[in-house]
Amino acid sequence: MFRIAICDDEQIIGSQIENILLDYSERTSLEIDIIVFSSGEELYKYMESSHTFDLIYLDIEMECMNGLEVGKKIRNTMKNHKTDIVYISGKDGYDRQLFDVQPLHFIPKPIDPNKVIEDLRLAMTRADKLGGIFAYKKGNESHKVPIKDIIYFESLGRETRIVTVKGEDIFYGVMQNIFEIVRKYQFIKIHRSYIVNYNHISIFRYEEVIMSNQIILPISQAKRKEIKDIQLSIEQEE
């Protein structure tokens, strides 16, 4: 689970960022947990109570404890250099002041949804939360494969073929169960017999995909519109 804080004293902005993230999470099956704060003091007190976040969207211009002060306390007082901070502001000219906090990025107002998602994905990549391991069993043996190395799964009746950048293997597995495990890593079910890693698709066509290993896999007729929508959704956020 990737934990995110949004801190902005403008409720409309906080809600806007939350909705952008929740919508993206729903469309891509990413597992995220979001808490929204309306002041810097509220966020800092929450973190003082041993609560941590992977990413914080933090407004700079807030009353009392502003975003710069909160960031410095997180870095210097709490000695937390792991949490990524994305600053939000309606003004420019904070470059030098932001240097000590070492933010991941700066997003100007009005908010661009694409920038919000770009920073989410960058933070998740830095935290290695878009990676992961897929595990399966063969007899008494347990096998583990990095998610990023998997090209696709193919149903062979009661068995499943897993094809990776290093080769392939066959194990007993149910495709729907496999899909529930890997869908959050941008795997797509293009056919009842195929689950593919979106990041290993070299060419999209209406009726088929060409994978990074040059294998051509069919998109079932019933799935074509859905797959096209997923493709457009993901590419709009990249």
Walk me through the structure.
InterPro entries: CheY-like_superfamily, LytR-like, LytTR_DNA-bd_dom, Sig_transdc_resp-reg_receiver. Keywords: Activator, Cytoplasm, Phosphoprotein, Two-component regulatory system. With 238 residues, this protein is α/β, with parallel strands linked by helices. It has two domains: 2-126, Response regulator (Rossmann fold, 3-Layer(aba) Sandwich); 133-236, OB fold (Dihydrolipoamide Acetyltransferase, E2P). Helices cover 33% and strands 33% of the residues. It has helices at residues 11-28, 40-48, 67-77, 95-99, 113-126, 175-182, 224-236; strands at residues 2-7, 32-37, 55-59, 84-89, 105-108, 133-138, 141-146, 150-156, 159-164, 167-172, 187-191, 194-197, 201-204, 208-211, 216-218. It has a five-stranded parallel β-sheet. Strands 10-9-8-12-11 form a five-stranded antiparallel β-sheet. The protein has a three-stranded antiparallel β-sheet with strand order 13-14-15, with no helix packed on it. Helix 1 links the parallel strand 1 and strand 2. Helix 1 crosses helix 5 and helix 2 packs parallel to helix 3 (67-77). The longest helix has 18 residues, at 11-28. The chain is elongated. The mean pLDDT is 90.
CATH level 1 class label of the largest domain: Alpha Beta
Largest sheet geometry: 5 strands, parallel
Which homologous superfamily in CATH is the superfamily of the largest domain? Response regulator
Give the count of structural domains: 2
Number of strands: 15
Q: State the CATH topology of the largest domain.
A: Rossmann fold
Spatial gap, N to C terminus: 21 Å
- In N-to-C order, the SSE pattern is EHEHEHEHEHEEEEEHEEEEEH
- Low-pLDDT ranges: none
Q: Strands of the biggest beta sheet: in what spatial order? A: 2-1-3-4-5
Radius of gyration: 21 Å
Mean pLDDT metric? 90
Tell me the β content.
25-35%
**How many DSSP helices?**
7
Work out the oligomeric state of the chains in this entry: single chain
The shape is: elongated
The secondary-structure class comes to alpha/beta
CATH architecture of the largest domain: 3-Layer(aba) Sandwich
Q: Indicate the percent of residues in helices.
A: 25-40%
Domain Response regulatory: 3-124
GO molecular function, one term: DNA binding
Pfam families: LytTR, Response_reg
Organism: Tissierella pigra
